Amino acid sequence: RLTWAVAAASGSAGVVGASTLEAEAAKLASNNPPVDVFADLNGRWQGEFVGYSAEGKELYRISVEQHYRTIDSTTQLVEIIDRDAEGRVTTGKGRNVATRRADGTLELTCRVEKSNGETVEHRGALVAAADGSQQLMWFSSTPSRREVFREHVHGSGAGAVYEIHGTGMYDGTLIVMHGAYRRVATRSKGSKR
Asked: Taking the CA atoms of the chain, what radius of gyration do you get in angstroms?
């Protein structure tokens, strides 16, 4: 799923001596809409997002609902509902955007506007994980916030899990983060349940 975009994202297709397989992968990637890089995220997800101190102490645990949907060849929308331990709710609306550069590589951006007035923007890249799977890596840097995290979906259907692993520096405090969400089945129209 994310694999098709790797050759295009790495730019290897234009390198003299690149393998035929890489060249074919880049050719295939250029025929797919850029937004396909986010396709595994489409749907509804529910789970927990946890933050830890550098010493491993749990700092917070948030119950999360996310709904991703592709709207065109470059854009995927996301709606987020976060509930903290005290029951306070923060909502967010955002968009993941993938555009193809002239050299065939992808430019990835994510912007989320939250109900608490916060706006978060990230740039992204496709990376190969230690196990060889393709994952999204997001990063941002402002004077009060520096973050880097990776996202991936493993499994399929009702067994799919969407995970986030990351770290952030917030006003000088290091936080290690992990999120794990399960796909939520959506009822079809006309369902009585």
From this structure: 18
pLDDT of 14 higher than 70:
no
Closest C-alpha to 92, from 131, 69, 133, 120: 120
Other beta carbons within 10 Å of 29: 23
Query: Across all residues in the chain, what is the average pLDDT?
Result: 85
Distance between CA 87 and CA 130 in Å, rounded?
A: 37
3-state secondary structure of 188: coil
The rounded Cα 175 to chain-centroid distance in angstroms is 19
Residue 134 Cα distances to 108, 129, 175, angstroms = 15, 6, 24
Question: pTM, whole model, 2 decimals?
Answer: 0.80
DSSP label at 41?
A: G
Q: Where are the beta strands (DSSP E) in 71-105?
A: 75-83, 89-100
Distance (Å, rounded) from C-alpha 102 to C-alpha 100? Answer: 7
Measured CA to CA, the distance from residue 69 to residue 80 in angstroms comes to 12
Phi (first) and psi of residue 138, to 5 degrees: -115, 145
